[in-house]
Amino acid sequence: HINGLRLKDGALAFPNAEITVPAGEWAHWMDEARMNAAPEAARAGFANAMRVFKGLEKDVKRVEGEREVAPGITLVPTPGHTPGHSSFLVASGNQTMMALSDLTNHPALFVRNPDWHAVFDMDGSLAASTRRKMLDRVAADRTLVVGYHFPFPANGYIAKDGRHYEFVPAQWNPVP
Questions:
Q1: In angstroms, how far is CA 131 from the centroid of its own chain?
Q2: DSSP letter string over 54-104?
């Protein structure tokens, strides 16, 4: 999800933007030795990260742990999908929304079955553990959630019944 940082010609799409990256994600994808030891099919991800961040290494802000990265936006580590995978808690006044990123991929599969492992999860057991922890958190806090790959309307709530979870889409109103 970093390809939007550069234009087709390689120029920065947002030259004045501050770029913040989870430290674990940076350490993984920017490590040439790790890339060389990875299976051939996985090397493209490393090469892409290195291409996108080439020349920006000293300017990229690396962060660790759960912390506010911009006013009202808190990075929440959710490792497993990738080593430094993160979700984002967005707050405005008394309203909050958790952008789950790729934590659950499709809710019909991974909210209902949080222990399943997606082929894209780099550490399936860690992804499942993290997924349960985050689903517990947003269900308990009644936090609005949004997911990168959720079907329309792509936002709603997580309901929990015992050890079972369900995604409940938010009511969509086409009139503002």
A1: 11
A2: TTTTTTPEEE-SSEEEETTEEEEE-TTSSTT-EEEEEEETTEEEEE-TTSS
Secondary element (H or E) of residue 146: strand 144-146
User: pLDDT 10s digit of each residue in the chain, 176 long?
Assistant: 799 999 999 999 999 999 999 999 999 999 999 999 998 888 999 999 999 999 999 999 999 999 999 999 999 999 999 999 999 999 999 999 999 999 998 888 999 999 998 888 999 999 999 999 999 999 999 999 999 889 888 999 999 999 899 999 998 888 87
The CA distances from residue 95 to 7, 136, 138, in Å, are 34, 18, 13
Q: Whole-angstrom Cα distance, residue 170 to residue 18?
A: 32
Cβ atoms of 116 and 128 closer than 8 Å: yes
Q: Say if strands 73-77 and 67-70 run parallel, antiparallel, or are unpaired.
A: antiparallel
110 Cβ contact partners less than 8 Å away, ≥ 6 residues apart = 103, 104, 116, 118, 131
Q: What is the pTM of this model?
A: 0.89
- Altogether, the residues listed in the chain come to a count of 176
